[in-house]
Structures are given as C-alpha cells and as structure tokens.
From TrEMBL:
Lineage of origin: Eukaryota, Fungi, Dikarya, Ascomycota, Pezizomycotina
CDD domains given in the database record: MPP_239FB
Protein name: Ser/Thr protein phosphatase family protein
Organism: Metarhizium album (strain ARSEF 1941)
Residue ranges, annotated region (Disordered): 334-360
GO molecular function: hydrolase activity
C-alpha cells in the first residue's frame, strides 16, 4: 500500500498559555534555563495534523477555553485534534452549567477552522495531504483529587490493534511518567502512570502513543515490543519488563541533560547544552523522523511514546513541542469511519462532534 509522509505537531498541557514571541538573538546565552520559554513560540511550525493531548485550561474558565481554541484555530494545519484533561472540568459530561454550555459552543465554533474536539473513542480521518490516519482518543486518568475525567479502580481503554495514534491525557505506567523532582535530585523515581493504560497499549501496539498530564515526564521513548508469543506476553497485568525488548527500547530524549528542572539540578547547563536548546527553540520543537526508511520501524513492533507537556512542573511553558514525520497509508478509496466507545456520552457527541462521514 502506498504511504504518504505526514508531519504531526504534538502538544499537551498548555493550560491556556499562548505561544510566546520568537526568541531574541542570543537570548539563550544568558537565560535562566530553568525558567526560559523554549519552543512554545509564535509561530508554531506548520503541520498536516496537530494533536493536543489535554489540559486546555488551568481553572476551566470560559476565557481560558477561548484562548486555547483561538490558538488552535490559528495554527498552520488543516486538522487539529484535541481532547480534554483533568483540569478541563467544564467539558466533563458530569458538568452541566451555563459555563459548560458556553465552553461547548466555543468548541463547536472552532470546527470551522479545522479543530475537532474528541471524546473517548476511535476515529479515522482523511487528511488534506491525501493520507489516512486512525486515532484512538481518551481523556481519562486515575482518580487523584477532585478533577475531571477521572476514574476510581479500573478503566477499559479500548485501543484497537493496529491503530496509528493513541492520544490520551495521561501516560501509561512506567513510560515517561516520573512525577516530582526525585529524578533530578538523584532519588528513585515515582511513577504516576496508569497500569491499565499500559496493558491496553501493549495489546494494541499503536505506532505513536502521545500524552501529557505529568509535566516533568516530558520526553520521547522508543518502545520495541517482544513477539506476542514471548514468555510474559500473556500475563494478566503485563509490565514493560515482560513485553518490551529492553535492548531495543529506550529514551530518545528526556529532560535529563536537555535543561535543568530546578535550581538544584546541575544537568543541561553547559555551553553546548545552551546552544542545543537554542537550536531546538528556534525550530519550535524536537523533531523525530519516524518514517519507515529513517527509523526502521515495523508496524506492531515499535511504538513511539511522546509526553508532550508544554508546561513544566511550575506551570511555566518551558518545554518543547514534538514534530514527528510519519508514513501513513493513502486515503484513496477509503471512507472516513467514526466509532466511539461506550464511555462517550450521547449528549457530548451530539454537542461537540460531527458524527457524519466527511472528508477533512
């Protein structure tokens, strides 16, 4: 099947922040690397597809949604897909108020500029560049405090095998999910990801799994799966150790060495580190070529994991977007299909999504 090289811009956890102005010449020579805004700068790079993995707001106010949807509408991409996060209480089906109805109106209006708000489910899109992409979306995260879209106990992430992209708000357990500053300070990591989500990803093996939620987990990870008949693959609660090839898996880029996370973190402070951070900021993100020829990836064998949180642990937009090139199948002679899981409410679907087949 013919494939089409497709550029995807991935962001998350922008919390109603607008991209900052372009960096001044030599700005990074003397900048405080803990606080400096990196690649979340205007203009963000053009793409065939933009993915925003949730936490559109910080306090779920109508002006915050207006800001975020305005930013998404302005991006140079024909299609922008967005899900909610735990901060986005007004989008939770449990919330029915004048504010929540106003927010849904903001989301509906943004469809005119190619912004599609997705609830939990699986979707197929025909892109303007001629490619077809299948996307599983879920905004749900484990219960922690009184936030939105959270579940106690177990949640079924119905990710279909072979899907191109899984976009969730939270990370899977053990992958780019280290919470707090323990790693930066040399202490054992605290993993805050969801084990049920990791199980679902291990079964489905999407080509890309992108998320946010744990700001300090920002990074990219190449996961190479063991064969399905390998010992441990049939475990009821599979873990990274029993379903991934450790020798062929590992981080592509994390905050470790890229920039310091706090004043006590001495990593990423060299002149070379400053120059690299300045370069990445000027190109408005970290670039990964995940095409077959360049990355030597086999569908069902590798998953590119991306934590795309733009905000750092102190809610400063100091982390870089991700720019990914991916080979996708041609949309020629394919119809756009729309499927939703049982967790997507009829009211939300009717108000926020066009459920009829159409070509984007």
């Amino acid at each position: 099947m013919a494939s089409i090289k497709t550029r995807i811009l991935v962001i998350s956890d922008t919390h109603a922040a607008r991209p900052h102005a372009a960096p001044a010449p030599d700005e990074f020579d003397a900048a405080d690397l803990v606080r400096v805004v990196t690649g979340y700068r205007d203009p963000l790079p053009p793409a065939d597809l933009v993915l925003h993995c949730g936490d559109l707001t910080r306090r779920s106010s109508v002006p915050e949604y207006e800001t975020t949807f305005s930013v998404l509408r302005s991006l140079d991409a024909p299609l922008k897909l967005v899900i909610a996060g735990n901060h986005d209480l007004s989008l939770d089906p449990a919330c029915d108020s004048p504010e929540s109805r106003a927010v849904r109106a903001v989301a509906r209006d943004a469809q005119r500029d190619g912004v599609e708000y997705l609830t939990e489910g699986t979707y197929d899109f025909a892109l303007e560049n001629g490619a077809s992409v299948s996307v599983y979306a879920s905004q749900y995260t484990p219960a922690y405090g009184g936030w939105a879209f959270q579940y106690p106990g177990r949640h079924e992430f119905a990710i279909p095998p072979g899907v191109d992209v899984a976009m969730t708000h939270g990370p899977p357990y053990g992958v780019l999910d280290e919470a707090g500053l323990s790693g930066a300070l040399g202490h054992p990591p605290h993993h805050a990801g969801c084990g049920h989500l990791f199980e679902a990803v291990a079964r489905a093996r999407p080509r890309i799994h992108c998320f946010g939620h744990i700001h300090e987990g920002w990074g990219a990870y190449r996961g190479t799966w063991l064969h399905r008949d390998a010992p441990g693959s049939a475990a009821s609660r599979p873990t990274e150790e029993c379903v991934m090839d450790g020798a062929a898996s590992g981080p592509i880029q994390t905050l470790d060495g890229l920039r310091p996370m706090c004043a006590a973190d001495n990593r990423g402070r060299s002149a070379e580190a400053r120059q690299r951070l300045a370069h990445l900021s000027n190109q408005r993100g970290c670039y990964i070529d995940w095409t077959y020829e360049k990355a030597h990836v086999d569908p069902g064998r590798q998953t590119l994991f991306l934590n795309a949180s733009v905000m750092d642990i102190r809610y400063r937009p100091s982390q870089l977007p991700w720019i990914v090139d991916l080979d996708l199948p041609s949309a020629e002679n394919k119809h756009r299909r729309h499927r939703t899981s049982e967790h997507a409410t009829l009211e939300t679907m009717q108000n926020l999504q066009n459920t009829k087949s159409h070509h984007v």
